[in-house]
Amino acid sequence: MGSYSCCTPSKKEGKNVSQLSSLLKLLAEENRLKLLCILCQGRHCVCELESHGNMSQSLISHHLKDLKEAGLVLTEKKGQWVYYSLTDLGKRATDLLFQINK
Fold first, then answer.
1. Cα–Cα distance, 98 to 92 (Å, whole number)
2. What is the pLDDT at residue 8?
3. Among 27, 17, 95, which Cα is nearest to 66's?
4. Rounded to two decimals, what is the model's pTM?
5. Bridge-partner residues for 83, per DSSP?
6. d(C-alpha 49, C-alpha 88), whole Å
7. Is 81 helix (H, G, I), strand (E, B) or coil?
8. Which of 34, 56, 79, 90 has its CA 20 to 30 A from that of 99?
9. What do you get for the CA distance between the two ends of the chain, in Å?
10. Which pLDDT score, from 0 to 100, does residue 18 have?
11. In which order are the strands placed within the sheet that holds 73-78?
């Protein structure tokens, strides 16, 4: 049986596989994908996402926190509002997901 370079015992490669697995699990959740789709159109505050996503404010905030921790979403505070947008990684991830979905 052949050997696969991504599965070698190297600590760095093992970490990369683990990070990719975590990212894929994060993106596999339907509500997070909806939020990413909406954010592809530009930055939004939670109240705007709430009207588009058919989710509660608390659920949206929870998912945005997860997406931010994964490096897919940025926040920008303006006055009392916090606006969310995609990072470069978030844009690349959504571009790839939409290409797969074609």
1. 10
2. 56
3. 27
4. 0.80
5. 45, 76
6. 20
7. strand
8. 56
9. 34
10. 84
11. 44-45, 81-86, 73-78
Query: pLDDT tens for residues 13-33?
Result: 566 888 888 888 998 999 999
Lookup: tokens for 90: 């978030």
Tokens of 55: 């989710």
Q: Whats the size of the chain, residue-wise? A: 102
Question: Which residues, other chains included, contact 72 with Cβ-Cβ below 8 Å and sequence gap of 6+?
Answer: 26, 36, 86, 87, 89, 90, 93
Report phi then psi at 19, rounded to 5.
-65, -40
Distance CA 95, CA 40 (A): 9
Q: Under a CB-based contact definition with an 8 Å cutoff, are residues 90 and 36 in contact?
A: yes
Residue type, 47: C
Residue 82: which of 57, 102, 56, 99 has the closest Cα? 57
One digit per residue, the tens of pLDDT, for the chain of length 102 reads: 455 555 555 666 566 888 888 888 998 999 999 999 999 999 999 999 998 868 999 999 999 999 999 999 999 999 999 999 999 999 999 998 888 876
